[in-house]
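Run log, item B.
One chain of 72 residues. Sequence copied directly from the ordering sheet:
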Amino acid sequence: LEQGIAVPEKVSLIGVDNSVYGRICYPQLTSLDNQIFDSCVFGAHQLLDLLNGGRPAKCVRMRADLIKRGTT
C-alpha cells in the first residue's frame, strides 16, 4: 500500500499458517491454514507409538484449507 502497488489487482499474496496477522492487516491476507495444532498432535502420537515399539506411518496426508481474503 505504501509503495502504491495495488493488491490484489497488480500482485496477489498468500501467507501460510493462517495466523491472526492475516486478519488484522490491510487488505486481509489470504492464507493456507495447515492445521498446525492437529499436525503437532498427530506427530506427538506418532512419536509415542514409536517409543512404545510401534511402527511409523508409511504415508500421511494432512489437511490444509485455503482461507480466501483480500489479497487474491
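Observations after the first pass:
- Strands lie at 14-16, 30-33, 65-67.
- The first strand starts at residue 14 and ends at 16.
Flagged for discussion on Thursday.
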